[in-house]
Amino acid sequence: MVNTLVNTFLSDKKEEIGSLFSIKCNFIKFSDYEVKTLPELQWPLKGGKPLIKKNVEIIAGVPPVVLNKNPPLIDGYPLDVIHEVTFQKDIFFEVMALTKNVDVIAGFNEQAEQAISTEDILALCRKYGINTKVDGPIWMQHRIHGFELMKFKYSLFALHWRFAVYMAVCYEDYELMRELVPLTAQSDEQILASAKEWLTQFSGSAINVSLCSTSNGFGFEINTTHIISACDVFLSLMIASGDGKNIKICPNCHRVFFGHGNKKYCDNCNRKTVWSRKKREEEKQENGGNV
Question: What pLDDT does residue 10 have?
Fold first, then answer.
C-alpha cells in the first residue's frame, strides 16, 4: 500500500519534476576561436603504445584578454574568463540545429561529418565558451587549449541520435525505432521496451546533483563544464517529464523547436513570414529574376 501511494504521488508530480532542476554550466570563454591542424597527436592507451593521429583538426581558443594584472585563478584559469551559463531549452534547440542536415539512420560517416558546419561550431563556442580541458593531450603536447573537431561532431551526432530515438518512442513510431536502434525484438511491445532501455543505457556520463536554494524555494542544481553534457542532461529531464509531444520540427527550416497546440512553424519561420517569402520568390520568377 505504501509503495502504491508513493508511486501515485510521483506520477502526479511528474510534470513538475523538471522544473525542480537547474543546469549550471561553467565554461572557459576565450576572446575568439579558430581551427588549427596539429601535425600529430598522441593518445595514451593503458598497457600499450599510444594511439597516434596525424593532421588532427581542432577548435582552439585564442588567449583571452585578462582584465586584472594578477587575477585569481580557478583550476589554473584566470577568473576573468570563467563564463557561467544557466542552461535553458533554447540552448538545447540551438545546439540541435547544428545537426539538422544529418541523416542519423545512415550513421556517423563522412557525409554526416560534413553536414555539421564547422563555422556553426565556432559561433557556438564564441557565444557560450567551452571547457578546454576536454582533450588533455592537446594541452600537454602542444600547449593549446582546444578540442578535437571530429570528436565534437560525433558528440553532436550522438546527441541527435538519442533525441531521434526519444521522438520515435514518444510517437510510437516502431519502424523508425527499428532503423535507429539495433533490436532483436519482433513485436511492437518488445520494440518499444527495447528502445526505452536503449535510451537509459545511452544517457551520457553520470551527473552530480546538489540541493540549492532559489527565489522560489529549494531545488536541485546540476553542474557541468561541457555544453554537450548539458544538452544530454536536459534531454534526460525532458524524457523523464514526458514533454516530447510539444517538440516539433519546422517544415520550412527543419529546425527543432518547442511549441504548444497547433503551432507549425518555429518563431523564425512563422506562417506569415513563410508566405511572404514564397510570394516574393514567385514574383521574382514571374519578372524574370527581377523583383
Answer: 37
For residue 276, CA distances in Å to 27, 251, 272 come to 40, 15, 6
Contacts of 124 (CB under 8 A, 6+ apart): 94, 95, 98, 227
Rounded CA gap, 212 and 220, in Å? Answer: 6
Domain range list for the chain:
15-66+76-260
Q: What is the pTM of this model?
A: 0.75
The share of the chain scoring above pLDDT 70, in percent, equals 74
Spatial contact of 38 and 58, defined as CB atoms under 8 Å apart: yes
Instruction: Provide the residue count of the chain.
Output: 291
Beta bridge partners of 221: 22, 210
> In this predicted model, what pLDDT tens digit does every residue of 68-119 receive, in sequence order?
666 666 555 555 556 666 777 788 888 988 998 999 999 999 999 999 999 9
Query: In this structure, are residues 159 and 99 in contact, taking their beta carbons and an 8 Å threshold?
Result: yes
H helices of the chain, where?
2-12, 14-17, 89-96, 110-115, 118-128, 136-142, 149-170, 174-180, 188-201, 227-241, 271-286
- How far, in Å, CA of 193 to CA of 216, rounded? 37
Q: How far apart are CA 111 and CA 113, in angstroms?
A: 5
As a whole number, mean pLDDT of residues 46-51 equals 80
